[in-house]
Amino acid sequence: MISRLVTLSFVLASASLVSCGGDDAGTTEAAAATVVVTNNIFTPANVTVKAGQTVEWQFNQGVHDVTSGKTDPGTATAPPTCTPDGKFASGEPQGSGTYRFKFTTAGTFSYYCSPHCANKQFGTVTVTP
Ligand SMILES: [Cu+2]
C-alpha cells in the first residue's frame, strides 16, 4: 500500500513537472549535477556545471524550495537575509519530487530555501563557459 502511494505521488509529481513550462521541467536531458534537498541543507551546497547544462534538485525530506538570489549569513547580532533576484525558482515549497533548471550563462548563482533562510539553507551553482 505504501509503495503504491509512493508510486502514485511520483507519477503525479512527474505529471506536474511536465505540465509546468519554462525552466527545464520537461527535458529528458540528463542533469549534469544533482543536489539533494533535506532538512535545511542542500547537498552538495556548491555545484559546478558548464553553460547549457542542467542542475536537478531532489526534494527528499522536509518541505523546501529553491529560490535564486543574494544570501547573507548575517552576524552574531543580525539574522541571515535572503533577497530573490528572479533568475530561477522552484515555486511553492515541496516535500518530494524534483526541480530542474538549465543554466545558459556563465557565472556564480547563489540560491536559498525561502522557508529556511534563517537556517542558512544556502547553495551556489557555478557555471563555467
Ligand atoms: Cu528549506
Q: Can you walk me through this structure?
A:
By secondary structure, the chain is mainly β. It has a single domain (2-128), classed as Cupredoxins -  blue copper proteins (Immunoglobulin-like), CATH 2.60.40.420. Helices cover 14% and strands 43% of the residues. The chain has one helix at residues 2-19, and strands spanning 33-38, 41-43, 46-50, 53-59, 67-72, 81-89, 98-103, 107-112, 122-128. The strands form two sheets. A five-stranded mixed β-sheet has the order 3-9-8-5-6, with no helix packed on it. A four-stranded mixed β-sheet has the order 2-1-4-7. A hairpin with a 2-residue loop joins strand 1 (33-38) and strand 2 (41-43). The longest helix is centred in the N-terminal third of the chain and has 18 residues, at 2-19. The radius of gyration is 15 Å and the shape is globular. The structure holds copper (II) ion. Copper (II) ion is lined by residues 40, 64, 113, 115-116, 121.
Q: What's this model, at a glance?
A:
The chain has one helix and nine strands, in the order H-E-E-E-E-E-E-E-E-E. It is globular, with a radius of gyration of 15 Å.
Looking at this protein, list some descriptive labels.
129 residues, mainly beta, Immunoglobulin-like, five-stranded mixed β-sheet, four-stranded mixed β-sheet, 9 strands, 14% helix, globular, binds copper (II) ion
